[in-house]
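User: Just a sanity check before I run the rest of the batch. Below are the structure tokens for the first item. I only need the designed sequence back.
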């Protein structure tokens, strides 16, 4: 099903949670010099114009990056995310929002590799065009040599299948973002099956899954199914910005990030930042967060906060 266009939702509270966590994961991967591969199974268009077309229609960024833009009291790790977005808007006016491939490109080093899948013909073309511009700009600024060969590969194709060809990665280090639309309820099953297969191919990869928190059964059971996957540790974080209503009415109120093999640095950062996000993005008394973690080595030791 290819009706989904991420531009409608760019910069909303769910993007804030997803990209903030993504940047934390890159920061951790960057602590070692050894190269790593970033795999984006569902890349979207890469960059979104907030003041035109799709994104301006519902202005969902006003539930997310909008309220954070002028804040002077951002926790340091959240400021790293907001500053990355600001870097794409040198005029100071919030006009463009970076998707996950752009966040990755900004965070990653010369030696690292980006492997980006996008199935939608229009979005995969926009993604390729955006990356060409980003590369040309970086080369013109002297930030990187031009013609960087195979650092970034974009494939118009199905990320659920494409990932199989990439694991294990040559450097034995990988960060994978899995962010399908979930408009087709089969996506929940496909994510779980893909993770089971990927963990068998590469048990030590860091896998980050974004998902909507909805009333529908597939969504309610989703995190519990991921907890049963054979990985050493996991963290599940959710952000709810308003009291949930029935599915299908109004905008998304809640989403989660489920991270398999998370870095040890992630949980303390989440404990600091999630209450702040609830305070700034929360719309009513229903706004809240949860953090759960578990480890297979100790059975199912689960801690829940928030
Ligand atoms: N990860 C992006 C970001 O954070 O900026 C947003 C991705 S958006 C939520 C989901 C994208 O997956 C859409 O652009 C959609 O066209 C694409 N898509 C849907 N099914 C796909 C598949 N099987 N393989 C690759 N891309 C797919």
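Assistant: Here's the designed sequence for the first item:
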């Amino acid at each position: 099903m290819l009706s989904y266009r991420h531009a409608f939702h760019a910069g909303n509270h769910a993007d804030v949670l997803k990209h903030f966590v993504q940047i934390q994961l890159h920061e951790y991967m960057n602590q070692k010099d050894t190269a790593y591969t970033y795999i984006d199974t569902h890349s979207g268009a890469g960059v979104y114009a907030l003041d035109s077309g799709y994104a301006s229609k519902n202005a969902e960024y006003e539930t997310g990056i909008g309220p954070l833009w002028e804040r002077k009291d951002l926790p340091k790790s959240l400021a790293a995310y907001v500053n990355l977005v600001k870097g794409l808007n040198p005029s100071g006016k919030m006009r463009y929002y970076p998707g996950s491939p752009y966040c990755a490109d900004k965070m990653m080093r010369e030696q690292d590799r980006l492997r980006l899948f996008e199935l939608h013909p229009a979005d995969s073309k926009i993604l390729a065009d955006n990356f060409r511009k980003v590369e040309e700009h970086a080369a013109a600024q002297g930030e990187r040599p031009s013609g960087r060969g195979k650092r970034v590969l974009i494939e118009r194709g199905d990320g659920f299948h494409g990932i199989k060809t990439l694991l294990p990665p040559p450097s034995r280090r990988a960060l994978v973002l899995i962010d399908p639309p979930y408009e087709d309820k089969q996506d929940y099953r496909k994510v779980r099956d893909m993770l089971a297969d990927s963990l068998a191919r590469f048990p030590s990869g860091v896998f980050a899954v974004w998902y909507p928190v909805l009333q529908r059964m597939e969504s309610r059971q989703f995190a519990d199914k991921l907890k049963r996957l054979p990985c050493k540790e996991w963290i599940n974080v959710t952000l709810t910005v308003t009291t949930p209503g029935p599915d299908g009415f109004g905008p998304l109120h809640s989403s989660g990030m489920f991270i398999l093999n998370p870095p040890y640095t992630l949980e303390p950062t989440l404990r600091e930042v999630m209450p702040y996000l609830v305070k700034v993005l929360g719309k009513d008394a229903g706004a809240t967060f949860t953090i759960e973690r578990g480890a297979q080595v100790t059975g199912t030791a689960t801690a829940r906060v928030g």
